[in-house]
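Here comes my example:
=====
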Amino acid sequence: MSTHLRIALGLAAAGVPPLPLRAGKMPFGNCPACTKNACGGRPNMKTPGPCTCPAPCHGWAAATTDPNVLNSTPWARTWWEAAGVAYHPGGAGLTVVDLDNAEAIAWARASLPATRTVPTTRGEHWLYQGAMQGANAVRPGVDIKSTMAYARWLGPGTGTMTVLPDVVRTLTVKEPATVRPAAVTVPAPAGDGKCPHRTPTYLDRGIAMAEQRITAAREAVHATVYRTFLAVLSTHGRCGCLTEAHTARLFTAAQAKGESPRHCTDAWTNALTTLGLSHV
């Protein structure tokens, strides 16, 4: 039994669906019968699991926890040829925030809750409990590996895994079509929910981190502003803690990056609408 197969069987026993990787950290190509998805086994790769083909075809969708499949003849041969092991995070109910460089790691440490981390060749994987749609390049040096994606297995990592936070989920949310309000200034929502924040320091720190996130944006400033507004409102928008002074701080940071007052207003309004807070 190859070392890669032994690792794969251990992952499968733990409920983590593995798949083999060839050189270059890529899945093995489809077999001749499945080339260009001719078999029809996984149209658009929207469902996990191998097709009727006995080989490990269809990239991330081939990942499986079935030891009989992993030990089958074509799979066993592939494990001997493999250069590494990957897994389907979404299939295990996980999300991997793939940080490719030191700047991305610094951003994560300043913006995301601590969780289990795994060192990679160039950066780190941050693992959260919970699945979401995977997406690449959600910000400079940051990819999301979860549903319909694969991540390299580089070991179990260290630290306690925490629940997938909203700030990660919002990274893949695209700004909706612009909704232009009649007024230029949009006040913060005056929610009447119970405030979960024990001290004003928590809110002040959140606003400061949001300002830093906007200020640090080197590209996709529009998207960064919207996602930051969305993250702030998802945490603080329902309890009435936000004031016009807080909103002004965020708008000032955005305008310092070249955003117009009108775009700030639009992004804020769209974030309110997305979270169902526009009526507040």
User: Anything to note?
Assistant: The first strand starts at residue 18 and ends at 22. The chain is about 35% helix and 15% strand.
